Amino acid sequence: MSSGGDGRAPAAGGAGLFAPSRVATAVLAVVAVAFAVGGWRLGFRDDDGPGPGLLPFAAAVVLAVLLALMQREPAGPEETPFRLRPLIGIALCAAYAAAAPWTGFVPATLVLVAGWVRIFHGESWLRCGLLAAALTGAGVLLFGTLLRVPMPLVPGLP
């Protein structure tokens, strides 16, 4: 398997459309657009100075410029191919953030920790459940009891 008769193997990721650097650029471009739209909606000026939308809009502009500069550089041959596991981790965290306001801290955290340990560490369901219960209990003790952070532990309970 040579890349042109010179005996070298083709690059592992590098120049492909789904190279990690290209995927990261696309995701950050979506973030930049969201910041720009949010900043525009908030407004750039207030009665007595800069408005609340100025900083997010400025951050979006800076991010867009940096992304454009980043795309000028070719992906290096040392770039590893795209992997799915980090996306699974991001999806789990996003699902947790979306579910926690509706389900409360305890159920969402139990499911997140048990799923994370099962998917990424391959532990048994018993071990996943025990670890999830221990870490969720520690979180409730630390944030709910010691630091007195107001948070919905379970829906319908004070």
From TrEMBL:
Residues 24-152 form the DUF1468 domain. The chain crosses the membrane at residues 23-42, 54-70, 128-149. It holds the Pfam family TctB. InterPro entries: DUF1468. Signal peptide: none annotated. It comes from the Bacteria. Keywords: Membrane, Transmembrane, Transmembrane helix. This is Tripartite tricarboxylate transporter TctB family protein.
